[in-house]
Write a structure and sequence with these properties.
mainly alpha, two-stranded antiparallel sheet
């Protein structure tokens, strides 16, 4: 299964190599600053991300993709949609390209599965799996793994 099909337009004009670079940067962030359990980064709902904070996998991916606010990361990066009680409609979840790509590469269908894995895996496993996902994306795009 391809992580980013070759004919898929990428959000923000990002190439597969750029997505892979962001995934590698997230791995480095976790390797350097630590793996957070239970939240994107320390007090994510009350405090914006600042360099040096430990992050969970999703928090690291969001931070290197430019998200600093926990609520923004939840809505725009993870793609959690809002329920409109007036219409009774919920828009479908639409995760950011980096989030969707990592989920596919690691075999997760739901964001919650990625959160659970990140909270239960050790930092070395998370870093190794993110590096593997980045290499897989590069290989599928025809680049060097």
């Amino acid at each position: 299964m391809e992580t980013i099909p070759r004919d898929t337009p990428t959000a923000g004009d990002m190439s597969p190599a750029q997505v892979a670079d962001l995934i590698d940067q997230a791995a480095t962030l976790i390797e350097t600053d630590g793996l957070e359990v239970g939240d994107y980064w320390t007090r994510a709902l009350f405090q914006p991300y600042e360099p040096g904070m430990p992050c969970c996998t999703v928090g690291a991916l969001a931070a290197v993709s430019g998200y600093r606010d926990g609520v923004d990361a939840e809505k725009a990066f993870v793609g959690v949609s809002d329920y409109d009680p007036r219409t009774g409609a919920t828009e479908p979840d639409r995760p950011h390209l980096v989030m969707a790509t990592v989920m596919t590469a690691l075999g997760f269908r739901e964001a919650e599965d990625l959160y659970d894995w990140s909270d239960n895996a050790g930092d070395r496993e998370v870093v190794a799996e993110l590096r593997y996902a980045a290499a897989l994306i590069r290989a599928q795009a025809g680049g060097v793994a």
